[in-house]
Amino acid sequence: MDVLSCSIKTLKGLYDLSGVEVGQHFYWQIGDFLVHGQVLITSWVVIAILLGSATVAVRNPQTIPTVGQNLFEYVLEFIRDVSKTQIGEEYGPWVPFIGTLFLFIFVSNWSGALLPWKILQLPHGELAAPTNDINTTVALALLTSAAYFYAGISKKGLGYFSKYIKPTPILLPINILEDFTKPLSLSFRLFGNILADELVVVVLVSLVPSVVPIPVMFLGLFTSGIQALIFSTLAAAYIGESMEGHL
What we know:
68% helix, single chain
């Protein structure tokens, strides 16, 4: 009962995160739900950038690759290497998922620093990187959790759950809590880093608007890319762990 109670509290904590707010928000009413409209707008922009770039780069493949085709081939090779390293020989079906996570987070993070979101005025709140909202990072983390549970169950069936009593049943509560805390760490790490980066830039621009914020912005671009790599690498590692049965 204690384990079940802790698990329920952890899930409730993840649900309650959707109510966390930093600053003002532009709400849309969809049925009985209120959603953060500015997050949907910026997410659609990021998706449009990714789809548009991919379409332009690979719509007419060349034997001698163009710059765009070469870039996308390099990114694909990089994602395949990350997936193979973390998941193993059965990495193939998971490349699209890991690649989608990496590219969406990478472009979302960079959009917060490079796109002039502040030009567009909203009735309430302001536009920012999608990953600057806790709802986005929690959603990505929960997708990752669903993916590694699916990977483990599809590979081992119900025998997958035997890992919770290995190497000894005494560790059952710890093993269960470990799986429920993974999405917490993934979501808070990404959200905290992106929010902190944007807040630092805003504060420096307000204090010293000329030169000082520029190095910080370049550092933010670097850390934004690193955060995308960390998230996708951990997602691949969790999937590989569930398929191999490593604890």
